[in-house]
Structure of Gamma-Glu-putrescine oxidase, FAD/NAD(P)-binding:
Amino acid sequence: MSGLLLKELGVIENSYYEASVHRPAPSQPLHGRMDAEVCVVGGGYAGLSCALELAARGFHVALLEAQRIGWGASGRNGGQAIVGFGSEGEGAIERQCPAEVAQAAWDASVEGIRLLEQRIATYGISCDHVRGYMTLAPRPHKVEGLRRWVRHMRERYDYPLEWVERAQLGRHVASDRFVAGAYDPHSGHLHPLKYCLGLGDAARRQGVEVFENSAAYRVERDNGPVVKTAEGEVRCRQVVLAGNVYLGEFGDHLAPEIAARIMPVGTYMIATEPMDAQRASALMPSRVAVSDNNLIVDYFRLSADNRLLFGAGETFSARPPGNLVQRIRARMLQVFPQTADLNIDYSWGGFVDITMNRAPDLGRIGTNLYYAQGFSGHGLSFAGMAGKLIAEAMSGDASRFDVFTRIRHHRFPGGALFRTPALVLGMWYYKLRDLL
Ligand SMILES: Cc1cc2nc3c(=O)[nH]c(=O)nc-3n(C[C@H](O)[C@H](O)[C@H](O)COP(=O)(O)OP(=O)(O)OC[C@H]3O[C@@H](n4cnc5c(N)ncnc54)[C@H](O)[C@@H]3O)c2cc1C
């Protein structure tokens, strides 16, 4: 798959997030040999969180990022910081694991939200964080599923979701499209790239040596790992692979054994021009983040400068659709016909790393390679938690990390070349299930 995803992303780089941050100058790429206790590959939430946590525990950490910090999903996403793993992911964990293990996984996801809020406070990360999140049923036949899920979350995890009838939805969203909703007071949203750059800054201040434009193309595993880049290498005791779907893009020798456990799914976003504050408040009075409960979700929220940010899982392959803006805009107008006069200022996208069962994929290869991937569209908060769990495991307490290593994952059939056709079929199946 080398280079394929990078090419596809090049087509769609007009990101509102990139346009609304001031990036620091890039750090120096890695030149020559260096020693570190841990080498982290990947400068998204998972890698940065792990590096930050390890450095706070006194480890000497080098972090290699192929592009810039936050270049991957962590700088492109919907900004929705949500508890849990989605109903599919939770279902998989509950089916496979004893009740106390499923409970521990759920608790870790709730802690993920607290960790994110703590880090925003501790490191003074200015990232427009707002609490409040809603899941909405877009059709009558989706209401019963939503109701069952809310009951399940309350009874099994004692999680305080609030049921919202159609007549009350206007308190949150000025749209006739939805039939009922579930309000979550703890989940919320933020500017994902500002948050990611804030983590990067905190990691540097904590002593992590960050090298941007430094793609790792090979990990030599014998005699203590050595992570190689084009112009240098890190000799270390342990390696963390946090490269998401891009890991194999820079060379096939990092960890071929985990590559086929995730599949890249394209999801795309648009940002309207800014509205005046009154109009924005009329559109979404409580400023919650929203997803519908289709299997292929639409998601939206207001930005701090009163744009409507609208995203949708649109492609059934790694290839972005040609008429991307029109397609997502059409979805936006189904929800908010009253936004038809707004210009679309930005459009961009990225890849979500889904696992077959939608539960996250954390694990070890041998004794000194750790990895975290497969967040299946729920990584904004949990990828950070996964990084913390790896740091705990490396510090000698793997009990919480091993909650997740118990989850079984299957490989997508067909390997790198044929995963996409399999996905096309799978996504059509989900789309049909949403419609019927
Ligand atoms: C458009 C979009 C919308 C989304 N919306 C949401 C949402 O609203 N809520 C939510 O919870 N989740 C959402 N997600 C998913 C979420 O963004 C991810 O789960 C999360 O960011 C994953 O973080 P990560 O650190 O694992 O990966 P990434 O952020 O992708 O970071 C991986 C990094 O590793 C680097 N890398 C890869 N290979 C190498 C290598 N060999 N050498 C050096 N560096 C390497 C890459 O350049 C990249 O920067 C969305 C994703 C997308 C794309």
In short: The chain is about 35% helix and 25% strand.
